[in-house]
Amino acid sequence: MKKNKDDKAAGYAYRLLSIRPRSEKELRGRLFKKGFGQAVVCEVISSLKDKKIIDDLKFSRLWIESRMRTSPKGDMLLRKELAGKGVAPLTIDKALSEKSGNEGVVVATLAQKKIKSLEKLPKPEAKRKLFSFLARRGFSFGVIEEVIRENLGA
After folding, report:
1. For residues 24 and 54, is the Cβ–Cβ distance under 8 A?
2. How far apart are CA 133 and CA 127, in angstroms?
3. pLDDT in tens, 8-44
4. pLDDT per position as a tens digit, 120-133
5. Which long-range contacts (CB under 8 A, 24 or more apart) does 67-73 make?
6. Distance between CA 38 and CA 91 in Å, rounded?
7. Could you say which of 31, 53, 77, 110 would form a disulfide bridge with 73 (CB–CB 3.0 to 4.6 Å)?
């Protein structure tokens, strides 16, 4: 009986992972929600970790890479999203430190696109809207201010 539950739980875990990568906490939560017991869930998670199928650092790297490609976000927002997925702070720090690309370059690129839609506004309003746009995407205030200064003046 126990082996059957392990097989069902492992099958469910593999199905979830075939849809998209997941953090250990996400996968553990989904298995519990499906009704599998503590022992079965721990066994499946342990097995997947041994096989290196789930790895929060790898998951974090993939998450960051995907976000930067599809919808660029700043480190603050990426950190919040990964923490919400149950990734440990040290793992998040390591993944963010390995991130390719400079946050300033990403902010400047986004700012250039946004500035085109703000050209007809008075300068103070354009600055405020650009600042809000970039801040909502989790970029640091220092980087945002520098980009605004370079593109819209002091």
Report:
1. yes
2. 10
3. 899 999 999 999 999 999 999 999 999 999 999 999 9
4. 888 889 889 999 99
5. 68/99, 68/101, 68/106, 72/106, 72/109, 72/110, 72/137, 73/137, 73/138
6. 25
7. 77
